[in-house]
Write a structure and sequence with these properties.
The complex is a heterodimer. Chain A contains twelve helices and 15 strands. By secondary structure, chain A is of the alpha/beta class. The chains are: A alpha/beta, B alpha/beta.
Chain lengths: 459, 493
């Protein structure tokens, strides 16, 4: 029996102690007509060896394509030490640190994480992490409503240059509480949100504006102007950032005259593999004055009975297990394992290592863009500063190109044509520090080959 | 005495105190390259990240890990959390490099192996729960709850049934239930339990009506007993047009024995990190897949994995225009889902049923052993399910030792404490869930430790009040933590 240690003798003596003849007697309170038939739709058990073979076959079918996709999940090198530590049983198989004395490792790691993320984003405080970047934005929008003490009809300005999935997720989660999202167009030449496109007579009825930096197109927003505009209108600023980029870019805490109010983002670039889209972790930081409106676990430093330093969950009066229907969120856990990976990653990389990763990614994306924009039927969509992603417009259908590249073992980018039809046949590409000059050359050649075999759009 | 020089040196400093300006983990950065970022957008001062060698980081986090209790090191009978063994194979095969390097937006032709696992997992979860359709996308139990209640809301609205603004939640429910109902815009109506631990069905009859959107139930309930009148409850709620939501927190108890779909539930969430043994990771990641009856299928959160002409693909808003939408950036905690898939394949149909059987055997056995040494069951006339409650109200009154004192003293015996003070309606309670993966010897050892603690409570209650003594720290000052907030590291002044 997999993972069940009972011998027949154990079972007999346990049943005798309980005073029943067999295990089925333990279910005598369950009405007979509800009992399940055998689960014939489940395959019979496999040995570990057989499962290993099955999973290897499945994995091999997908192979290891050369990846130029970003769009919210970024391939970075992860030092071997990170996952060798994180998969230790003491981290992997522990739970939420309810018993603080038996969980000091997890708690101190969270405290160190909170310190690192707060500094990286330029804010005062961090929680212990949320599920992922997209859901963290939804939580930030709900938090902004609480901070602004809006009881109904809260409106949030949501630029279209914010990730479409993040926007969708915020609407799915916040829409049920009556939040309204006003869509803000982006500037067609720069691919960014300009103050000129913001509504001019908002008064104080706007709860917050969301600013993603770099935005979904990889372009850099004028965060100072947007932040100052929002604060002048009495709105909060919710920053959505890629933590990797903050080794180089100005942290949200220093945007404009006063800085952003709530900062969230996808933590995956910090030591978490892209792994089919998860598990990742979302992060959230804010100013000290808003800490009681923040959702999720928070760890504080304190002392024990002997006066020694220790760590514990704190400010739990915000949470569902105390406040029930009045809680700041229904969230129960954080993403402890991934947060731990990120903490170790940041410790090993340090400020210099992280800066090198960020600048190498910018550099490689520049090389990629100049190589492929030189091909016929390709041009860059936007002019302006960008980070490590770029939008390219093709004269052939993107879907066909991506299928052709897949055949050559290349994950060639993200098709924007569904979410941004106005951009035509548009492709979002990314080259992190993991890409070499040879990789970029291989991609460029493959793209040229595939495009030469495809009819142009509309021909 | 703990504050001598030796114990002081055993304290692990923060990583920031190990940092030296200019020190690096050589070989980990890609080297200096120039990227063109305008100076106005550049960071002015570097972030305060530690500057340590790779060995320092490895040693520091390894030492920190050793300060934890975990399933791999300790019996962890944390009620309602199903802290069972997490098989190593699930981790190893989910971390094959092809899966780790798989981009969620990769072309379907580069994703068939991964998608086949997900499609089969959806099918297996349907079979296990008796539901018609499954979405794997929710990232934790609480998000699964959100998805479930949001689907109930969407269902009523799609029918033009707009007045249903109440969700009924039993008093004993996990705090996420009322918090979720509120997040979905509902009013919460609390339902009491009767003396034997069942829901008060007569009261339910009084509170249901045209405003009832649904009821959220856990069965077995958080009181560690099976809700015997579930068929009546189903009829009462369905008769007024409400739906039944099943919180899968306690699915381990009935795996292969009763299916939520057969009990009449319309929508359920499963905690894959409990029942299907994916790791708890020090507090996540979880995975909270949802299952639905046919009438709720159009509302499932997207993406779900479909199969067309032998090819697997993500189905999204275009396939499911009535969906409640997206809850995550991609399709939830994919790597966790792979682990659950591997676990189910290793157990197979018979192994799954044995989980329910032996989890229940262990709980009933441990309850009996604890009763033998004088502990009082909260529901002595009931069978335990996969977990049970003992109440220490007598010990608290007569001896002055609270459930928290017992819990802290147990740590000294090398056992993680059971869940304390939950459910809230049983005074001074311990909620104990041994799981099926523990041996008889471990359960006996735990019962012996509990007997010792009880003796100590009688003879020397201060031993309990000062516990724990043998852990990295003694009892912590939670009040100070909340009053003098220290949430980030700062150098000593």
């Amino acid at each position: 029996m997999p993972f069940i240690p009972h011998t027949p003798a154990d079972e007999r003596s346990m049943l005798d102690a309980i005073g029943v003849s067999d295990i089925s007697s333990l279910f005598d309170e369950i009405p007979k007509d509800l009992r399940a038939a055998p689960l014939t739709g489940i395959p019979v058990a496999m040995t570990e060896m057989a499962v290993g073979r099955l999973m290897s076959e499945r994995a091999n079918r997908d192979g290891r394509p050369l990846n130029f996709i970003g769009a919210g999940a970024y391939e970075h090198h992860i030092p071997a030490a990170v996952w060798s530590i994180v998969t230790r049983g003491e981290i992997y198989s522990a739970y939420t640190p309810y018993q603080a004395e038996a969980s000091q490792g997890t708690l101190q790691t969270i405290f160190e994480y909170q310190s690192m993320i707060a500094s990286l984003t330029g804010m005062d405080v961090s929680n212990a992490s949320l599920y992922d970047g997209a859901s963290a934005l939804a939580e930030a929008c709900l938090m902004a409503v609480r901070v602004q003490k809006k009881t109904s009809g809260a409106r949030i300005l949501m630029p279209r240059s914010v990730s479409p999935v993040y926007r969708g997720c915020a609407e799915s989660i916040c829409g049920l509480q009556g939040l309204i999202f006003d869509v803000i167009e982006y500037d067609r030449s720069g691919g960014s949100t300009s103050v000129a496109l913001l509504p001019d007579s908002t008064g104080n009825d706007v709860t917050a504006i969301v600013i993603q930096q770099p935005n979904f197109f990889g372009m850099l927003e004028d965060v100072d102007a947007l932040t100052d505009w929002a604060h002048a209108k009495g709105a909060l600023v919710i920053a959505v950032v890629n933590p990797m980029t903050l080794a180089v870019l100005r942290p949200p805490g220093e945007w404009g005259a006063k800085g952003a109010d709530i900062v969230v983002g996808e933590g995956q670039p910090l030591g978490v593999p892209i792994s089919g889209g998860g598990p990742y972790f979302g992060f959230m930081t804010t100013r000290m004055e808003h800490v009681r409106q923040m959702p999720g676990r928070i760890v504080g430093r304190t002392v024990d009975l002997d006066g020694r330093t220790g760590y514990t969950l704190t400010l739990q009066a915000r949470e569902q297990h105390i406040r029930r229907s009045k809680a700041t969120s229904n969230i129960c856990t954080n993403q402890g394992l991934l947060m731990s990976a990120a903490t170790i990653y940041m410790a090993i990389m340090g400020p210099q290592g992280l800066e090198e990763v960020a600048t190498a990614s910018v550099h490689n994306t520049e090389l990629l863009v100049s190589a492929i924009a030189a091909l016929p039927k390709v041009r860059t969509a936007f002019i302006g500063p960008r980070f490590h992603e770029a939008v390219l417009q093709l004269d052939v259908p993107v879907a066909v190109v991506l299928e052709g590249l897949a055949r050559l073992g290349i994950a060639g980018g993200y098709d924007l044509s569904r979410d941004y039809p106005e951009l035509g046949s548009a492709l979002l590409v990314c080259a992190t520090e993991t890409k070499t000059a040879a990789d970029i050359a291989r991609y460029t050649e493959a793209l040229a080959t595939v495009m030469s075999n495809v009819d142009s759009v509309g021909e | 005495m703990r504050n001598d020089a030796v114990s002081q040196t055993r304290l692990e400093p923060t990583i920031f105190e190990l940092s030296q300006p200019g020190r690096r983990s050589g070989g980990q950065g890609p080297g200096k390259l120039q990227g063109s970022i305008p100076s106005t957008l550049r960071r002015r001062t570097p972030p305060k990240l530690p500057e340590v060698s790779e060995l320092q980081a490895v040693r520091h986090y390894t030492r920190l890990s050793q300060l934890n209790f975990s399933i791999d090191t300790n019996f962890y009978p944390l009620g309602s959390c199903t802290m069972k063994y997490n098989p190593k194979a699930c981790n190893q095969y989910a971390m094959l490099p092809e899966f780790l390097g798989h981009h969620p937006h990769a072309h379907p032709n580069l994703s068939q192996g991964f998608l086949e696992c997900m499609y089969e997992l959806q099918d297996m979860l349907k079979e296990i729960t008796g539901m018609a359709a499954v979405s794997l996308t929710p990232m934790a139990g609480a998000q699964g709850e959100f998805a479930g209640v949001a689907m109930i809301r969407a269902y009523h609205r799609a029918r033009g049934d707009l007045d249903r603004d109440e969700i009924i939640v039993p008093q004993a429910a996990h705090g996420t239930n009322p918090a979720t109902a509120a997040m979905c815009g509902f009013k919460v109506v609390e339902l009491p339990c009767d003396a034997s631990g069942d829901c008060d069905v007569e009261q339910l009859r009084r509170v249901v009506g045209p405003r009832t959107a649904g009821i959220m139930l856990t069965n077995p309930s958080t009181l560690g007993v099976f809700e015997r009148r579930i068929a009546e409850i189903r009829t009462i709620v369905h008769d007024v047009g409400g739906l039944l939501y099943y919180d899968g927190a306690n699915l381990n108890a009935i795996l292969g024995i009763v299916r939520p779909g057969d009990m009449g539930f319309d929508v359920i969430h499963m905690n894959l990190h409990k029942t299907f043994s994916t790791p708890h990771g020090g507090g996540g990641p979880g995975a909270g897949a949802v299952g639905v009856a046919p009438r709720l299928e159009p509302f499932l959160p997207v993406p779900v994995v479909g199969k067309t002409g032998g090819q697997y693909r993500f189905m999204d808003e275009r396939d499911r225009p009535q969906t409640i939408g997206r809850l995550s950036g991609f399709m939830g905690n994919a790597g966790v889902l792979l682990r659950a898939y591997i676990y189910i394949r290793m157990l197979g149909r018979d192994g799954l049923r044995r989980v329910g059987e032996y989890a229940t055997l262990n709980a009933n056995y441990l309850l009996r052993r604890l009763q033998e040494v004088g502990y009082q069951a909260a529901y002595p006339d009931r069978r335990a399910t996969h977990e049970f409650i003992v109440t220490l109200k007598t010990e608290a009154k007569d001896l002055g030792a609270t459930a928290m004192d017992f819990a802290k003293r147990l740590l000294d015996y090398g056992f993680h404490a059971p869940t304390t003070y939950f459910p809230l309606l049983v005074p001074e309670c311990l909620l104990i869930e041994p799981t099926e993966t523990e041996s008889k010897e471990t359960l006996d050892g735990f019962a012996t430790a509990m007997a010792h603690v009880r003796e100590e409570a009688k003879t020397e209650v201060s031993r309990l009040k000062g516990a724990p003594y043998t852990l990295p720290v003694r009892r912590l000052d939670d009040v100070r933590a909340a009053k003098q907030l220290e949430l980030v590291w700062r150098p000593d002044p």
